[in-house]
């Protein structure tokens, strides 16, 4: 039995952050990733009668996202794709596993809030590393630091963000459905 248009929209919106992340891993371009998300959502709606279940839809969305991102990367002159197809194949089971770990939008919201709580220097490090795509020596040069010092700083930011996200998610899980803290 095919899925309904309503269920396609509900599932794609629920999984929006994961699909955007998947496209961004390939393209490193937030705007292009958003365009791909919109394109595959429309394509899924058009193919609703061919999609048998929500599990089938999720697999189809991931594959469509990957193929569209790779196609866009090939069409660009700068070859923004940083990961080989074999690496993307190896990552596929992990993307599937992530589907069962809870709402990605909650994690993304927590990440955004936690980044805002970082010091200005740490925020700059995150921007250069993840927005500008600088790695290793180029990041160290941009920051005017030694390579090892840069790696240590990135590691500290990762740990701080991880702790902050975990605390936010734990606090959110202790709230009642109405949004207030529980009395338990």
Number of helices: 9
How many domains? Answer: 2
Shape: globular
Distance between the termini: 43 Å
What is the CATH first-level class name of the largest domain?
Mainly Alpha
Q: What profile does the largest beta sheet have? A: none
DSSP strand count:
0
> CATH topology of the largest domain, what is it called?
Rna Polymerase Sigma Factor, Chain: A
Provide an overview of this structure.
With 184 residues, this protein is an all-alpha fold. The chain has 2 domains: 5-98, Rna Polymerase Sigma Factor, Chain: A; 104-173, Winged helix-like DNA-binding domain superfamily/Winged helix DNA-binding domain (Arc Repressor Mutant, subunit A), CATH 1.10.10. The protein has helices spanning 5-14, 16-27, 30-46, 54-75, 85-98, 104-117, 120-131, 136-143, 147-173. The radius of gyration is 19 Å and the shape is globular. The relative contact order is 0.09. Residues 178-184 have low confidence and may be disordered.
List keywords for this structure.
184 residues; mainly alpha; Arc Repressor Mutant, subunit A; 2 domains; 74% helix; disordered C terminus
Give the gist of this structure.
By secondary structure, this protein is mainly α. It has nine helices and no strands. The protein starts with a helix and ends in an 11-residue tail after the last helix.
